[in-house]
Design the sequence.
């Protein structure tokens, strides 16, 4: 088993981002969410855009670091962002 890791990359929130009106009306703890385990364990994590659905909603990946690994998470996100142009696009809905 691994005692330590440098970075972990997972899918971001499952599927495309919901419309704000839909998210507020349907928000619940009943459905699984890949971001929750990292939020409740206080490890550094961020989600970053990796593209858009055909309907124009953003998709994301999550970059997670070990305890006190904030700098590594931010460097990885900056590196990804500097080699892609997704941050220059905006949702169409």
Sequence:
């Amino acid at each position: 088993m691994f005692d330590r890791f440098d970075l972990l990359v997972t899918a971001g929130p499952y599927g495309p981002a919901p419309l704000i009106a839909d998210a507020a009306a349907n928000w619940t703890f009943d459905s699984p969410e890949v971001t929750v385990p990292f939020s409740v364990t206080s490890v550094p994590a961020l989600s970053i855009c990796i593209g858009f659905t055909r309907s124009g909603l953003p998709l994301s990946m999550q970059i997670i670091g070990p305890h006190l690994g904030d700098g590594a998470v931010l460097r990885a996100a900056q590196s990804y962002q500097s080699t892609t142009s997704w941050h220059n696009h905006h949702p169409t809905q």
The chain has a mean pLDDT of 82. The CA atoms of residues 40 and 83 lie 31 Å apart.
